[in-house]
Amino acid sequence: MDSSNPVLAASTLPHGLPDYAAIRPQHYLPAFDEAMRMQRQAVDAITAQSGEATFDDTLRALEESEELLGRVARTFYTVSSADATPEIQEIEEVLAPRISAHQDAILLDAALFARIASLYERRGELALSPEQRYLVERRYTEMSRAGAGLDDASKQRLTAINQRLSTLTTTFEKNLLADTNDLAVVFDDAAQLDGLSAGELSATAAAAAERGLAGRHVVTLTLFTGHPYLSSLTDRESRRRLLEASRARGSRGNAHDNRDVLREIVRLRAERAQLLGYPSHAAYVTADQTAGSPDAVRDMLVRLAAPAARNARAEQEKLQAMIDRESEPFALEAHDWAFYTEKVRAAEYDLDVAALRPWFEAERVLRDGVFYAAERLYGITITERTDLRAYHPDARVFEVFEPDGSSLGLFVLDLYTRDTKRGGAWMNSIVSQSGLGGTSPVVVNNLNVAKPAPGTPTLLTLDEVTTLFHEFGHALHGLFARVEYPHFAGTAVFRDFVEFPSQVNEMWIFWPEIVDHYARHVETGEPLPRDVIERLQSSEAFNQGFATSEYLAASWIDQAWHSLSAADAAGDIDVAEFEAAALADVGLDNPAVPTRYSSAYFAHVFSGGYSAGYYSYIWSEVLDADTVEWFRENGGLTRENGDRFRERLLSVGGSKDPLAAYRDFRGRDADVQPLLTRRGLTD
Fold first, then answer.
1. How does pLDDT run across 66-119, given as a tens digit for each residue?
2. If you write DSSP's letter for every residue of 56-77 in order, what string do you get?
3. Active-site positions?
4. What are the residue ranges of CATH 1.20.1050.40 in the chain?
5. CATH code reported for the domain at 14-149
6. Domain 361-490, CATH 3.30.450.40 — does that match?
7. How far apart are CA 220 and CA 233, in angstroms?
8. What topology is assigned to 259-351+542-614 in CATH?
9. 97: exposed, middle or buried (C-beta count within 10 Å: 0-12, 13-18, 19+)?
10. Against a cut of 0.70, is the pTM above it?
11. CB of 10 within 8 A of CB of 16?
12. Residues 6 or more apart whose Cβ sits within 8 Å of residue 367
């Protein structure tokens, strides 16, 4: 192994943080090649054994074989998602089919599968710990689902499909990033952006200057259809331009058009599902999730869609009534919704959400809100490490300490948007915790907050505050993992369970001890008035018809694409017509309430890990809402409650059936009623 390659060399930095200061793009491909070679060599050694398989010589050895490649991959993919320069994008395109072929060679290895199948058949007779037994079961299931039991011809076709899909999903993300940057909206005059704060205007001016457009203003696009500025912009034409640009991404007939890409992805996923014995990709995905089947998913979405659409129509009537009272009334359109929603909110609840931003200064929200809540609940402490460098100058490193003072791991925060960062917000691990490998966690949170000019404070929207708490919930899941085998580390849980801990962490945003601590005016230090907080809480279900409808619409589109059989997916499907028919089918075809993601920029399902799984957010929210009720019933923000939640849910990672872990924590299965109440979906 080339120890001079800083990607391959074991890091000497705390908790194995990669030495990004020494890493150059040219180091990545050789590191991947060497790590794949070494893993293939290790797997060959496992399968060359002639004796009956044991846990240690097969599964423990397989876990150990993955250590180097896992470390290299996490080091690189952290960068490729957050700082995808053209050079990094080129590397990722070269890597995609190579990694896919390597993974398939192992997952489809008949000799390896035979040894794991032998362990699976004898699992009741072997002296295994609960985690070891679950690892046997999961590895057997995963290899079975990957196609290890197929004949050679089917395996060959499956490998070709997987390699092509890896290229296509990489292309989809590359196209989306390029088109998102190209469609950033240029405004010649600040007057066109009336309604934005001084900080927001400085961010648009800085974005223009970076593009060589000094004196003008550029509004960059967010991943989802809507844009935070739509609620503030007083100029209707500016709102229209912004939403129109957002909805055009990936479907303009240019070099970045994603429609052919997504159609081929859908066809290949459907063909792969058929090869593996499933009627559709959705059936394949949900069979190994807590949902169990597409029918269970569709039943929930249908149950929620009708009341959500009904509530959205009622909200629309209120917005239209307000417009009708203006001197020059007009028919409400999608780009007007957010702006007039805030007017109605102000009238009904005496609330101006945009005016709250001075109370949400980013550094204070982070330290005195997000960190403080975790410190109160779990007894940890968090300290910035300015001596440690991450992968980009904007990415800050913090060390997390246990209540006894021992070091738990590192947390990296990358707050600001940039042209090389993909849209949205996410958590990922750079180093995963593992007793077997003796590793401790290093986790990252990425957001896309507009960066104001130097010297100007970063003031967050309420949605951005929510995102910061949400993503740190994922981070805690990764930080608190205490598993033996890296296969189960941190957030390596079922896709429709992974959002649960992050959504629970949102509950502390307006918890009295927390909000009083962080929501302080950036200039005066005065706390956010108690009556404002009470009005925010009382308006929790406000505009939930719209919010639930746009989310359910995206979830339904995801299910519609991935419920196609191989035969149905084979045709040349018109993307716009397909979406329209799907939304009409479920009653969510209101032009004023666009889907949160349209297919051509639906990165979660066409370049991320949520294909046939975007439903998981609301599926997990059933558990989340029920857990919030538990905290309220049991004293709220206490160490005893935090320790129970950490021990029985967060620390087990993927080493236990997630619903069994939930029952262990809650004492019963989750009740859906708290979710229905929260979203205003009860009769």
1. 999 999 999 999 999 999 999 999 999 999 999 999 999 999 999 999 999 999
2. IIIIIHHHHHTHHHHHHHHHHH
3. 471
4. 14-149
5. 1.20.1050.40
6. no
7. 15
8. Neurolysin; domain 3 (1.10.1370)
9. middle
10. yes
11. yes
12. 518
